Structures are given as structure tokens and as C-alpha cells.
Amino acid sequence: MEHAKTDAPVRNGTFHVPMYGEFTSRHNRKTRYALSLTERDLTVQKITSSSQAGRGKVVFNLRDCIGCRAHRTDEPADVAACFTAYFYPFKKRWASSGVSRQRVEQCFEVASTQDPHWNLQEAQRWAGAISDGSVRNRPQKTGALCSEVQRPCKFLVLLNPQSGKGQAHILFTRHVQGMLQEAGVPYTLIITERQNHARELVREADLSQWDALVIMSGDGLLFEVVNGLMERGDWEQAIRTPLGVLPGGSGNALAASIHHYAGLQPVTSEELLVSCGFTLCKSFVWRMDLTSVHMASGLKMFSFLSLAWGFVADVDIESEKYRRVGPARFTLGTLIRLTSLRVYRGKLSYLLAEDPRGPSNTSVQNSSTPVRPTVHRDPSARNQPFRNSCNSNNALNPKRSSESPASVLGPPDSLLVPLDQPVPAHWTVVPDEAFVLVLAVYQSHLAEDLLAAPASRLEDGVIHLMYVKAGISRAALLRLFLAMEKGTHLGTSCPHVEYVKVRALRLEPLSPKGTITIDGELVEYGPVQAQIHCSLARLIAG
């Protein structure tokens, strides 16, 4: 028999808490449990003799709950009803140290009367109160948190079946599909079939059909989606569509960054997928910076992760042949490239983040005078293919992009001058012209296990620029990347490594051959400049 507390109830949405009830387990009708629901917790206490009081008690934090549903039992003649809550608390790993989110299902049977309708209503009352509590237990709206995806909602899931080891669809079915069902979130799944499929879709689609766009892939598919949104006539509204990220590729840098921003212990592979799936179901929306990147051909694109030249870009592209081994491809590629270290010549300039002479990030977005660069177009560049660092079906389509003038898409780049003009006098010009690598990142991670910019945040308005000058030994460079796994590489005191926070930069390669990547995608080789735009996009994060 159920008992309801009436002392000083607190209204939680459309439900009053605390609530108290006694129910049997759906899986063992001989065992009864006392349930106590408050604004923050669901306490499950096994009812037993007084000598064992306190044993068998489990407290579930509603922040770890993604949903609860009421339903009939599997037996048609049964008058009982059930409510099932789905929790993903942190639990110790069974085979290693540390913790990760692990699924816990709690199912209870309501059979207080012989009236099946009353039993179902009572199950619905408990399911509604638990679901409501899980939604209301959210982070405070401070910093980059700006909203949440309102329920009921519908997601569009774009999945690249070729990313990583080619198991994205299997992983989605194994983990994410059930989580979305538990959270009560309907979705439309589209499996990309070719290069720019997702880019074309989001560029032309009626986005009002969905409350969020979810990308199940590596970082390459998100790069395509972001640029598709920025090519729309209504780009200012379109880019505010919440973006969800599910790791299904090799790098998964943004997924690892989202996990890191939540202050959680590092996880990889399927544990990272479960973490991001949980974040997706909770649906808190945060602001995210984007960086506009200009190429010498006149092509302009938007980047959410990184711009790389030299060693990092070489490893990213040259390790494509090992992509079936997953994230280990980058470790293997690093070791191979270390055996024949390359040095690149070029000029690097940047605007320091704290430089008072540059406009603020707010004024950058609100400026009404866009920069119109004078560019020298290479007639052959229009048909020059771009390669995809993930070797997937999501490579950038240069033919479409090069047809759009650099000043058409997105906010004006008021910190930049045309590439054929010298950088402003208040910019810093690096005196060295021989580099092993130049890496500009705007998220914390460069890969699942590479914490490249520990100080980075989603909307800090900063490009974290690291460059390694020629003269560094192979051993020192290896130590640098080993330290990057824990984010301690900036404290190695290596004289060849420099790190600065900037708001804009220009890179002018002088070596005739080389590799430049944007968000892991191979782009045209030549002069490039970039400027960060604060809070331009929206991201579902924890």
C-alpha cells in the first residue's frame, strides 16, 4: 500500500515533493522497496527486518537521470502498472581505475488496487515527478550556458557510417538509440551517403522541423554541418541551432572537450560515447566560439576546432591509411613522422588576445563594415579537390565554397586586412621563420587523448596558439606529445615551444610544399589568416 507524505510539500513543476511510496520490484515481486523522492534525489530502501535497517539503501541523484516512463506490464491480464527510471551515475570501472557513467535501470510495480486505471495513473504520477525532477536539476545559468532544449523536442541525427573504424552505426544502435528512447526524445536518423551530403542538407533544409542537429561521426562531419549552416541566407539564426556531438570517428576532439569542460575524469571510446549521449539527453545549450578562416584563393570557411601546419597536420593526413585502428592511428602516425622530422619555412603573425588596440569581440560581431579582401584567385583552384583527413564521405567541396566571396558569409572580420597587405603595425610578427609545427586550437582537446589547450573554454574568445621552432630534438618533441596527453606540455620549459593567446593570426608558408588542415580537413596550401568570433554557435554540452 502506498503512503503519501503531506508535511510541507514543495511544488516541483506540476508535481508535489517530497513523495513516499512502497512498491515491489518488477523483476522480483517478493521484495518490497520504500521510495522517497525529493527535489534532488530518489532514495530506494529495501524493506526488511529492523535488525537490518539501513542496508540495501541506494540514493540516486536526479541529475543522473535522463528519463522515467510509466507503462503496463507485459501480461495483458495483469492489473499492475510500472514506472521505470533510467540513471547513468558514475561508477567504478570493473577492469581499470577511475569512474565512468554506467546505466542503471530501476523498475517498480504499482498494484495497490485491482483497478488497472488507478494503478497506471499512480505510475504516471511517479514517472512524471521523477522526470520533472531530472529536468529541473540543471547547472546554474552562468558563463556560457544560455538555455536548454525545451521538451518535447525532436532531433535530426546525421551519421557518417565511414568515420573511424566504420562502426558509427553499430555504436549508435548499441548505445545512443536506447538512451534517446529512455529520455523520450524522438529523432530522425539520416546516414550520409557522399561528400557534402550533410552540408547540402543543412544548407537547404527547413530547420524548424528539429530542435537540434546531432552529429555522430568524427570532427569532419561537424565541420561540414557548421559550414553548411553558415552558407544559408539566414545564417545568423541557423548557426544558433543547437548542435549535439556523438563521438564516432578517430579524433573526436570536440566530444572529448565537452567531457573535459564538465570537469569529469578523462574517458575514451565507448565510455566517451555514453558520456556524450547522456549530455545530449540532458540537452543544456552553451555558446561556442567559431573562427573564420580566409584562404589566398578567396575561400572563406568556419572552424570550430583547429588550424594546423607542419607536424600535426602531417600526422593527421598521413595516418589516414591506419584509420581502421581508431584513435591509435595518431600515435602510430606520430612515431612514423618522428623518424623523419620536417622543418617548414614561413611567416607567422598574430594579434594578442589582450591587445587594447584591437576591437572587442562584441564589436567584431556588431561591426557594420565587413572586410573585403583583395585576393588573387588561381583559376585551377576551383576544381582542385580537397581531401578529408578522416577518409570519409564528408570532404569539403571546394567548387561550391570558392564560388562564395569571402565577405558574404558570417560576421565581418574587422581584425583582418586583405592577405596581400601587410599585417597591422600593432600585430606581433614572429622573428623565426623555421618551424616544425604551428597549431591554433579553440577547444581543449585535439583528440580524445590530447589535451592541447587546458585553459580553453567554449566561449573564451581566444585562439590558443602554439608553435614549435626548428631545432627541437625528436626526443623533446616526443616528450611534448606525451605530456600533452595529460595537458602538462606547456610546463615542460622547452625553449623551442611557444604558446600565446591570440584573437587573430596570419600564416604565410614559404616552403613550396606542405600541409595545412582546418578541423582535421586538408585545405589548399598557401597563405591563411583567421579571426575568432565569440559565442557565434550553440552547442549541447554538460
Explain how this protein is built.
The protein is of the alpha+beta class. The chain has 3 domains: 10-136, Pleckstrin-homology domain (PH domain)/Phosphotyrosine-binding domain (PTB) (PH-domain like), CATH 2.30.29.30; 145-287, Probable inorganic polyphosphate/atp-NAD kinase, domain 1 (Rossmann fold, 3-Layer(aba) Sandwich); 291-535, Tumour Suppressor Smad4. The chain is built from 12 helices and 27 strands. Strands 12, 17, 18, 19, 20, 21, 22, 23, 24, 25, 26 and 27 form a 12-stranded antiparallel beta sheet that branches. Strands 6-5-4-3-11-8-7 form a 7-stranded antiparallel beta sheet. Strands 14-13-15-16 form a 4-stranded parallel beta sheet, with helices on both faces. Strand 7 and strand 8 form a beta hairpin. Helix 2 runs parallel beside helix 7 (269-282), helix 3 packs parallel to helix 4 and helix 8 crosses helix 9 (328-338). Residues 1-12 and 360-408 have low confidence and may be disordered.
What's this, in brief?
Strand 7 and strand 8 (81-87) form a beta hairpin.
The outline comes out as elongated
Which CATH architecture of the largest domain would you pick?
Sandwich
Provide the CATH top-level class of the largest domain. Mainly Beta
Q: Report low-confidence residues grouped into runs of 5 or more.
A: 1-12, 360-408
On the 0 to 100 scale, the average pLDDT is 84
| Category from helices, strands and their pairing | alpha+beta
Distance between the termini: 39 Å
Strand share of the residues? 25-35%
In the CATH hierarchy, the third-tier topology of the largest domain is known as Tumour Suppressor Smad4
Number of domains: 3
Round the Cα radius of gyration to an integer and report it. 26 Å
Number of helices: 12
Total beta-strand segments: 27
Percent of residues in helices comes to 10-25%
